[in-house]
Design a protein that fits this description.
By secondary structure, the protein is an all-alpha fold. About 70% of the residues lie in helices and about 0% in strands.
């Protein structure tokens, strides 16, 4: 054995590494494998190579031989290792030979299937082309857009197969099916009156256009909205299908699917993000020696990457300068900057309050005037543009708030004296909060109108039945309008802003036009756009089951709009972000949007009384009431088990166990962090003392 000098070991302690369970397990496996190798392996280099072939044979006589190509050896050594591995097969029993052969065959088949499936990926060639021309940062945006297309398509398949398809089959009597509508019991008759505002008689052609844009008229009575599914039970043959329970479980299923899928994808980005959070010295080394993106093949993209690396180095130097400046600040300067930041944050809060109040007033005005016009049937007497403007007023105000507020935040952040990296993160988080909070304010405004009751008749129903006889469909229509209007804005910006600007810059040599130049393709802004739309989709799917299909078509078209915009009408951002950190950031913001979607859906399902005139939950006080009603039909023993799981006697110990598991993983993460820090210290020592490379054998 070769031991380190005492002073070296004292300078960098390695005893902690040897105390880890993984290190002890590795020692045991190495000792076991070493004993077997000494018994069977010949002497010399060939023996060492043969020992490598035996080493993967672990406890339990399980054969897990690594292929020769995975070893860090030369080609000649790999060939000798492969020959040794093949020669060792004849000394194994027939069962072990079959097991090793079948394992290799299975790995080969899986590898070929994985390679084949990569060719079937949506937009595979397009995304690779974008990656080659503009780098991995912009490619991450289009990969993220592809992920949302697939996610929405799967959610659509889930909702269509569990909710829409059974309703269509039963209503049209397919496959010897039928359905039943049970009249609500102990409910006032006026609460069950629902007359959709469908088109009757001869109407103008623009009425259909208005209905298509607002979700009213003929669309209100289709499978697109909640009010269509007014069915209590279905029979397909002799089998009963509980549509209310299926509707609720499908909602929980698409939320759980989205959560699991996002977390699974974010784990890899989180690991890469941890790797990139190194000290400044390693950051400089990585940028200088490993910062080049070898996927780039376009000369313009190469020049852009040069400028990007130059910008990153300048940013790092600027951050170091600001850190020194911050360390040299006097107490008076610190008080001044803190007072300025407090004042700017007050302005930010005032801007947010103004946005929220404007959305609230616009929603109340739109709902009151739209419902009054529909109730008195005077839509034909109103101006078409004015009526459509009233219905789209909340969407217009939200879009204006999403556009104006970020511009104000970008202007104010310059005076707060933060580092460039923190400026970007803080501005993005403020923009995320504006976009997602605006949706919450819209829903709060709708709920305040839905829950407002001034008469005894209204209190008997539990909601404002006069304005909202089927309030779930009303909420679905608002989400539908937000989805459609968001797509119209994206398309209008491309056609009427980006394209004319490209023509002016190309064919006009005026200095002001050339100074403005092309609009940059901002990755973060585009990501916030689609996350905003995805949050609308998650919230609206409960009230409009086919909204994921619209979102899938919308994102499919947006992919080509953004691709054409990137290649022809815009230029890549001068300050691109790293692909690994951007992927992780995209998924974190998407996860925030999903968590925020849980809140309005939970309130709608468990708190607000369900409509008594439409929908599958009209016989229940709330949508959640279908769950205990279904459990009451189970056998007594199963009921006791389920109610026991839902009781405090089970919840408290379960919560304690979860806390213990969480604390264990936190401690394990802390131990791994210490290991990483010590390994970094050893890497530093290697540069100064080559003898430090020698370790215990």
């Amino acid at each position: 054995e070769v031991f380190l000098p005492e002073e070296t070991r004292g300078a960098t302690p390695v005893d902690f590494l040897q105390q880890l369970p993984s290190y002890q397990s590795a020692l045991r496996r190495r000792a076991t494998a070493g004993t077997q190798e000494r018994r069977a392996a010949p002497q010399g280099p060939a023996g060492l190579l043969a020992a490598e072939g035996h080493r993967p044979q672990q406890e339990g006589d399980e054969v897990a031989v690594r292929p020769a190509r995975e070893y860090p050896l030369t080609i000649a050594e790999k060939r000798r290792l492969r020959d040794c591995q093949q020669a060792d097969i004849k000394y194994l029993s027939g069962w072990k030979q079959w097991k090793r052969t079948s394992s290799k065959s299975l790995k080969k088949v899986l590898s070929e299937v994985k390679e084949l499936s990569s060719y079937l990926k949506l937009w595979r060639h397009d995304i690779h082309s974008i990656e080659g021309k503009f780098g991995t940062g912009i490619q991450s945006y289009f990969s993220f857009l592809r992920f949302l297309v697939l996610l929405n398509f799967i959610i659509f398949i889930l909702m269509f197969s569990l909710v829409t398809l059974p309703s269509i089959i039963s209503k049209y009597g397919m496959f010897n099916s039928s359905f039943a509508k049970i009249p609500p019991k102990n409910i006032e008759p006026h609460c069950t009156v629902y007359e959709p505002s469908g088109n009757k008689g001869l109407v103008y052609f623009y009425t259909y256009l208005k209905d298509l844009l607002s979700g009213t008229g003929f669309l209100e009575v289709t499978v697109l909205f909640y009010g269509y599914y007014t069915i209590d039970a279905e029979w397909i043959g002799i089998h009963k299908y509980n549509l209310p329970l299926a509707y609720l479980l499908a909602t929980f299923a698409y939320l759980a699917l989205s959560l699991i899928w996002i977390i699974k994808r974010s784990v890899g980005g989180f690991k890469q993000n941890l790797v990139h959070n190194e000290d400044p010295f390693q950051s400089y080394c990585n940028k200088v020696f490993a910062g080049w993106d070898f996927c780039i093949t376009d000369p313009n993209a190469a020049r852009l990457k040069h400028r990007s690396l130059q910008y990153e180095l300048q940013t790092d130097l600027e951050e170091e300068r600001l850190k020194r400046k911050e360390a040299d600040r006097t107490m008076k300067e610190k008080l001044c900057i803190y007072f300025l930041r407090i004042f700017i944050n007050i302005i930010v809060i005032a801007v947010l309050s103004g946005c929220f109040y404007s959305i609230y007033r616009a929603t109340v005005f739109s709902q009151e005037n739209s419902n009054v016009s529909i109730r008195h049937d005077d839509v034909s007497n109103m101006n078409f543009q004015a009526n459509l403007l009233v219905q789209y007023l909340p969407s217009i105000v939200i879009t204006l708030a999403n556009f104006i507020a970020p511009q104000i935040f970008s202007f104010l952040i310059r005076f707060e004296d933060y580092s460039p990296a923190f400026e970007i993160r803080l501005t993005l988080m403020r923009c995320v909060f504006v976009r997602l909070a605006n949706i919450g304010v819209l829903l709060f405004s709708l709920w305040s109108q839905i829950s407002y009751c001034a008469t005894d008749k209204c209190n008997a129903c539990g909601y404002n039945y006069e304005l909202y006889p089927c309030w779930e469909s009303e909420v679905g229509q608002e989400m539908y309008k937000l989805m459609i209007f968001d797509f119209i804005i994206i398309l209008a910006v491309f056609l009427f802003v980006d394209f004319p600007r490209k023509l002016l810059v190309t064919h006009c040599s005026c200095k002001p036009v050339q100074w403005c130049g092309l609009q940059e393709f901002g990755i973060s802004d585009n990501v916030l756009e689609i996350i905003y739309g995805q949050t609308i989709c998650w919230i609206g799917t409960f009230f409009s089951p086919l909204l994921p299909a619209i979102a899938t078509i919308k994102y499919f078209i947006i992919f080509y709009i953004k691709k054409i915009s990137l290649i022809h009408t815009r230029k890549p951002a001068a300050r691109p972000i790293r692909a690994s950190s951007s992927n992780f950031f995209f998924l974190v913001v998407l996860l925030i949007g999903l968590v925020l979607a849980f809140i309005p859906l939970g309130i709608s399902i468990a708190h607000i009384p369900s409509s008594k005139a439409c929908g599958p939950f009209r016989n229940f006080n709330t949508s959640w009431a279908v769950v205990p009603h279904t459990i009451d039909g189970f056998p007594t023993r199963l009921q006791q088990v389920l109610y026991g799981i839902a009781s405090e006697a089970f919840a408290v110990p379960f919560f304690m166990v979860i806390c213990l598991v969480m604390f264990y993983f936190i401690a394990l993460a802390g131990a791994h962090k210490r290991v990483v820090e010590q390994l970094r210290e050893q890497l530093v020592m290697v540069r100064f003392d080559p003898l430090f490379c020698t370790a215990k054998i």
